[in-house]
């Protein structure tokens, strides 16, 4: 099933597209991680990428953020070409990677000041932003503790802060709510919505949380074995397969029913 999505009415101007891919593909030896991806993501929109483990979501993000070379195909990100302008892409995008590294011997404030400096932000302005972000994420009072003493969710919060600190035009979030408690997830959800609306930040979000995607993402793409099988607004995807919500629609589309007869098969 492939849900066509087109913007009607105002129409899409070419400069209002922040991501455009054409037959974008990546092979690792015999593994076809991404196959002929054709996708457009509008500026200031929130795009959610769903798909089973190993579907190719992280691979796509790594290619689009300039970290990994595609095998074939083409793409532009904020108008920059992924083959020729990877440095430019890095300056206008933010990335929350799937398995990020943190400098554990720095405090949260030192780490964020370091990230700010990498993005040419310094002085009073960045210090204020850091204070406000740490306050928003409920880390005030712990800001001078070393990151090695943080819980995994607290580290994730610092990483979310580091991703948006320089207000990138486009933000890639690879599983942003992993390790976050429900209140922190809700906060990240609101932060995404307000940044998309107020400062026209574009979000490309890989997630396994269908309820999160349903609340936050205007357009959802479902990737299965490297192939984009479904694309459209969550409500359209749900209606098209006659599901109650996005979780049920997702399971209908990619499969995922548990075969109970196999549950203890490893013991036999
Ligand atoms: N560096 C690599 N070398 C070899 N194979 C790789 C490499 N990176 C990814 N792959 C393979 O590419 C495929 C897609 O992996 P990818 O990490 O993009 O999936 P994903 O959709 O992000 O999955 P998950 O939901 O588990 O995070 C997998 O089969 C994976 O084993
Ligand atoms: Mg991944």
Summary, kept brief:
This protein is of the alpha/beta class. It is built from 9 helices and 10 strands.
Give an overview of the whole structure.
The protein is α/β, with parallel strands linked by helices and 268 residues long. The protein has a domain at 14-101 and 168-256: 3-Layer(aba) Sandwich (Rossmann fold), CATH 3.40.50.300. It contains 9 helices and 10 strands. The protein has helices at residues 57-64, 86-92, 108-118, 124-136, 152-164, 182-198, 210-216, 234-240, 246-254; strands at residues 17-28, 31-42, 46-50, 72-77, 80-81, 93-96, 170-174, 202-206, 219-224, 227-232. A 6-stranded mixed sheet has the order 6-7-8-3-9-10, sandwiched between helices. Strands 2-1-4-5 form a 4-stranded antiparallel sheet, with helices on one face. Helix 3 crosses helix 4 (124-136) and helix 8 (234-240) packs across helix 9 (246-254). The longest helix has 17 residues, at 182-198. The chain is globular and about 55 Å long. The two termini are 38 Å apart. Residues 1-14 have low confidence and may be disordered. Bound molecules: adenosine-5'-triphosphate and magnesium ion (MG). Magnesium ion (MG) binds at residues 57-58, 98, 174, 206. The site of adenosine-5'-triphosphate has 12 residues, from strand 2 and helix 1.
N-to-C CA distance: 38 Å
Helix content: 25-40%
The top-level CATH class of the domain at 14-101 and 168-256 is Alpha Beta
Poorly predicted runs of 5 or more residues:
1-14
Count the DSSP helices.
Answer: 9
Mean pLDDT: 91
| Category by helix and strand content | alpha/beta
What is the CATH fold-level name of the domain at 14-101 and 168-256? Rossmann fold
Taken in chain order, the helices and strands follow as EEEHEEHEHHHEHEHEEHH
Q: What's the shape?
A: globular
The fraction of residues assigned to DSSP E strands is 15-25%
User: Order of strands in the sheet with the most strands?
Assistant: 6-7-8-3-9-10
Largest sheet: 6 strands, mixed
Q: Return the CATH architecture of the domain at 14-101 and 168-256.
A: 3-Layer(aba) Sandwich
Question: Compute the gyration radius: what is it?
Answer: 19 Å
**Are any ligands bound, and if so which?**
adenosine-5'-triphosphate, magnesium ion
Record field, number of beta strands: 10
């Amino acid at each position: 099933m492939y849900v066509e999505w087109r913007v009607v009415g105002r129409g899409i101007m070419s400069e209002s597209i922040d991501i455009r891919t054409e037959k974008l593909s990546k092979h690792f030896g015999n593994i076809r991680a991404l196959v002929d991806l054709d996708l457009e993501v509008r500026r200031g929109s929130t795009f959610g990428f769903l798909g089973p483990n190993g579907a190719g979501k992280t691979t796509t993000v790594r290619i689009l953020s300039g970290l990994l070379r595609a095998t074939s195909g083409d793409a532009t990100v904020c108008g920059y070409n992924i083959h020729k302008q990877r440095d430019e892409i890095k300056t206008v995008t933010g990335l929350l990677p799937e398995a990020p590294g943190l400098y554990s011997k720095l405090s949260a404030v030192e780490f964020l000041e370091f990230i700010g400096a990498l993005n040419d932000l310094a002085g009073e302005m960045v210090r204020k932003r850091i204070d406000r972000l740490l306050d928003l994420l409920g880390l005030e009072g712990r800001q001078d503790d070393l990151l090695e003493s943080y819980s995994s969710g607290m580290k994730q919060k610092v990483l979310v802060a580091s991703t948006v600190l320089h207000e990138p035009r486009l933000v890639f979030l690879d599983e942003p709510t992993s390790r976050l408690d429900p209140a922190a997830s809700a906060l990240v959800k609101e932060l995404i919505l307000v940044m998309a609306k107020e400062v026209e930040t574009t979000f490309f979000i890989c997630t396994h949380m269908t309820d999160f995607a349903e609340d936050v993402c205007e357009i959802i793409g479902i990737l299965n074995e490297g192939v984009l099988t479904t694309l459209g607004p969550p409500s359209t995807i749900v209606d098209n397969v006659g599901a109650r919500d996005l979780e049920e629609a997702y399971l209908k589309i990619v499969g995922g029913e548990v075969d109970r007869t196999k549950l203890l098969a490893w013991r036999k």
